[in-house]
Specification:
Elements: E1 2-5, H1 10-38, H2 47-82, E2 85-88
Antiparallel strand pairs: 1-2
Helix pairs in contact: 1-2
Length: 93
């Protein structure tokens, strides 16, 4: 069965995309925090390193929101002019 993706809901895409970005930011922030605590610089554990676990998810989430809105708008713009993406599904019985 062939279907065509004509439009992406901006709201639902932003929710999923931002959530994925927050999780990625949390993982990256945790790594930076652990590394800064294990291998501190001359002044001790860097303030940025300790706060990375809080800062990275917020920044990544906001960037995911802006990027998600931009990408869905871009996709919907081009899909309207050139057609959507053809998707092929197989039904199982």
């Amino acid at each position: 069965m062939k279907l065509k993706l004509q439009k992406i809901s901006t709201k639902s895409f932003i929710i999923i995309f931002s959530t994925i970005n927050v999780i990625a930011g949390l993982m990256l922030g945790a790594v930076v925090t652990v590394v800064s605590l294990i291998a501190p610089d001359e002044q001790g554990a860097g303030v940025f390193g300790v706060w990375a676990i809080f800062i990275f998810p917020i920044i990544n989430g906001l960037l995911g929101l802006a990027t998600g809105a931009f990408l869905t708008g871009l996709y919907n713009f081009f899909a309207k002019r050139f057609g959507g993406i053809d998707l092929e599904f197989e039904t199982s019985q």
